[in-house]
Amino acid sequence: MNNQLQKTMDKYPSRTGEQAQIMERKDPVVHQNPEQANGPLTEDEMKSFDKNGYLLFEKLFNDDEVAIMKNELNRTMEHNQKRDADDVIKEPQSNEIRSVFEIHKDSGFFEALAKNERIVKAAEQLLASQVYLTQSRINFKPGFKGKEFYWHSDFETWHVEDGMPDMRALSCSIVLTDNYEFNGPLMLIPGSQKWYVSCPGKTPDSNYKESLKKQETGVPDNDSMSWLVNKSGERIDRATGPAGSVLFFDCNTMHGSAGNISPYARSNVFFVYNSIENKLEEPFSGQAPRPEFLANRENIKPIIPNKDRLQSFANTSKTK
Question: For domain 22-28+44-319, which architecture applies?
Fold first, then answer.
């Protein structure tokens, strides 16, 4: 990593000592820009995102589109099952796939899905700018074997390890298999996006190699978690819904998931949309940046949304 000065002041220091600290968010949750004021979200939905840090839309994609997604999901799983690569994460103590990263560069279905107008326009409206993808992945949580993922704020990692300067990004999770209350759905603490938990400890070198399997660095302490839950009115919400549903959640919303001991797999596609005005800089940890498949820096340009209803992939998906 070069030694040039960090361009932006560190507004959100973390992993700098042994004590956790909770500080108020310094960026808006819903950004404002007259040129991006029009979009698919209603005023009430924008207010709800600002208040709770997430929005869930049931069946944003129809059953035919879900069938195509599931075919692509199975094809991607089969293709990567025997791959031994950094961008394919296996479950601890098993060979089951946990995540496959950088799927938006497949020059096919997932690239088109990432540019779909229904989700891109919503991201642009919430972030009040054009957007680009800084990360994408499929998360598999197989029945009986899917492990938990502890509470965390994505922004804490993206800021410290990737150099994301401001809280002007969000995740879009597309439900590929029905998410029930009993198969390890994503849990979110409403209102937690308004507070930043500066975590204790120090970032190990190449931390991503372990954290993608089991995150232990950059996770909040128990007292901070209790404070956030109490602040939310003792609420922990679960993002459940049928396949085709879509969850948008702010980069700083505290979230996690329990293990899946049910027979039913839980699979989701994640696209991380970042404002084009919030490009990654040098990591605020002072360490080398994480690999490109985790934090895109190359050939960054705004997404041009497409109106494709995904039907054009129906035949090719079946024949691959």
Answer: Sandwich (2.60)
